[in-house]
Structure prediction request, 259 residues.
Amino acid sequence: EGEKHDTAETMDLGRWEAGGISVVSEDGSTSVENGKLKLVCGEDGACDLILANGEVAVRRAWSQVDYRVGDAEKSFAARSLDGAPVALAARAEQTALGGCVVLEMKAVRSGAPTLVTQMRVYEDGRFVTVDLQVRNDLEEAVELSKMSPWIAGAKEQGGLFVGADPKDHGVLDNGQMRFLDFAAALHHGLSTTVSNWSAAIVDRTSGEGVVAGALSMEHSLPVVTVRNTGIKGLTDEATGRLGFAEISLDTLYSPRKPV
Prediction:
């Protein structure tokens, strides 16, 4: 369950501002910008996070839920990328982290749970928060094994971009592999890191870095996976930077969570 927020104002998509945050909707995409970063989501179910200098930080992030229906043993995955165009809506809110604009992306998929992703851009922050909700409109019960608010990877022409090349990066975990929660380790940027709760990724050359992870949880186990083995990251044509092959923000359920 996500944090409950006090809604200050609800807006139709178009062009408007709230608390220094601008919202623009045109040509099948919606952008939310606060002067420090810009979040851009398209009706194809993918989102980009762009820094104030125009450099992309996250490209083509999508939401996903892994589930099974009824008594079936087979698991399925529903993604915001697949199926009909997503529905986008925006509104202004006041939260514990400050004033923000929420960009909501609703993905209705035939024969699958509905995914509702809420991304918040804050008035004075170089960060975004992402919340994924799952709604079961099917006739049968659904059990969730994993919810992934954001995944960005080279297989879908996306990824995470920090410095020039992942080989010059370090990834600091916060405990690893779900159960090894008693020590933190530093990993090479060309490895794959499965970190509990959160992970810090730093370019040793430029000093640029990013922290990704969960702010809270109830019954799940939050995990951040930074993957750079088995597949090569994409190159950002505008800057020549090589991206990480995949970053995945996951919340795991064991046993599965009924919806």
